[in-house]
Amino acid sequence: MTSNNDDFLVWNFDFALTTFYEVDAFQLETLIPPQLSLQEVAPGVGLINVTAFNFVEGQLGVLPEFQELILSAIVAPDLRRGVPSAAMFVLSLTSTCQEHLDHSHDYYKLPVVEKLTESLLNKKNHEINFEDGEGKIAQINNCAPIIEYDNSKRYFQAFTKDGDDVLISDVFIEAPLFEHQENGDTGKLYEHPFFKDIEVDDPDVTNFLQMINEPGSTGKQTYFKPTKFV
Fold this sequence. Notes:
The protein is 6% helix and 50% strand. By secondary structure, it is mostly beta strands. The strands form 2 sheets. Strands 1, 2, 3, 4, 5, 9, 10, 12, 13 and 14 form a 10-stranded mixed beta sheet that branches. Strands 6-7-8-11 form a 4-stranded antiparallel beta sheet, with no helix packed on it. A hairpin with a 4-residue loop joins strand 6 (118-122) and strand 7. The longest helix has 10 residues, at 98-107. The termini are far apart.
């Protein structure tokens, strides 16, 4: 069950797969507000992040089990708040639960899109296959041949936009995780409105880093209510 106070919510999950992809930075520059700057891994090379969660039944006290998919552009962090594993400007969020999408829009001011109509998970092999009424969105899988999990707590920064204001949230992930930068087949991203016209089906869009959680393990995401970024 999701616990909360006035400042944050805790979301419980049993599946997490996050993949960072290299893309041409110019494709992202018009998608982020001027208050932020892209984090480039090489001159002219930016990163997008695609993350999938399976949240267990009982979130917000009433929600069924549901799947979530998030697209973000990696931006420079606000180091006044600490050094995060990554800072992300959220571009799209979808899930299989309309109540969750409504809450994400109202509470977190996240850019929600059409609800997922098809979500297939293989938790053991770390694979997802998501689509909606517009068609296929993503088929993603882990590409590392050897996996070693480590109990850890990771800190992230999530930026979003509300009107002219940029907002920031602190996000903490606690779970047995494995992180790698292996080269390999991570599946396929499809041309779809979810990706905001980023050319994700280009062969130059390659895996930069992946994180996965241990099958059968439980994790929690502590996600603070956003405040104005100044």
